Amino acid sequence: MSVDTNLKIGIILCLFLWNVLVSTRLETPYPEGLVEVYALPFTRILLLALVILSAVWCPTVGIMAALAFVCLGADVIFLTRRS
Amino acid sequence: MADSLMVGGAKFQKTFLDWSKQSTQLFVSVLVVILVVWISFADKLSLVARWQLSSTVGRLLLLLLLYVFYILGGWELAFVFTLAIAITWASKPLLKPLDVEEGYSEVKESKAGPHKWFVEMVLHENPVAVVEDRVQTEAVQDNSAAATTRTSR
Q: Which candidate among A74, B58, B64, B72 keeps its CA 20 to 30 Å from the CA of B124?
């Protein structure tokens, strides 16, 4: 197998495990730094750009990254919502 | 060679097709930028908009739009729009937003001081803000012009 294929499999596995971790817990223990950094507009756009680029590179990686992004965004919005 | 042979309507048709292709690409590019801003700041949308987009009609409309975007811009545009939909639905308000202003809306919040109360120390509480417990209320008043004779007045 080529390096590209190995890299894809590795990233898919990592993202899959991360998604299982964050989606099977009611109160996901996100690192505080990640939550603070997510509040910055630049970070949000950067993460989104990464998701789109990963989808262009490999659709499976893109879907996994999109799931992780949506979980993070939804949790942060839920935890910081005022209504 | 083919361009030189085209005259009249055929030439105009080709020009129109080229222009429509370019305008579609421009349209998709602008739409992607708008969608990126939407995804990044979905929580800044108004409560009413988020509620309406998460209702049955709103969801059906978004799914229809998703199909239209897929036809127009391919899977890349549909992928970005799916993210926007997911984030918007995830940030749906818990309660239906009301037009009238709720009571106790003027309650002030102040940052918690550096010194903890005894109860806070015992219960290991870490308050980040203190909500004012005194609010100004007014009795319910009937300002309508119509009067009823069944009152005791």
A: A74
Q: How many CB pairs under 8 A join A and B?
A: 55
SS3 for chain A is CCHHHHHHHHHHHHHHHHHHHHHCCCCCCCCHHHHHHHCCHHHHHHHHHHHHHHHHHCHHHHHHHHHHHHHHHHHHHHHHCCC
Distance from CA of A6 to the nearest CA of B (A): 24
Task: List C-alpha distances in Å: A53 to A69, A73, B36, B121.
Answer: 13, 18, 13, 49
Q: How many domains does chain A have?
A: 1
Which residues does B contribute to its contact with A (CB < 8 Å)?
Answer: 36, 39-43, 47, 75-76, 79-80, 82-83, 86-87, 90-91, 93-95, 97
pLDDT digits (tens, 9 = 90+) for B87-120: 999 888 877 777 666 566 667 778 888 888 888 8
Range of the domain at A40: 3-80
Q: List pLDDT tens digits, range B63-77.
A: 999 999 999 888 889
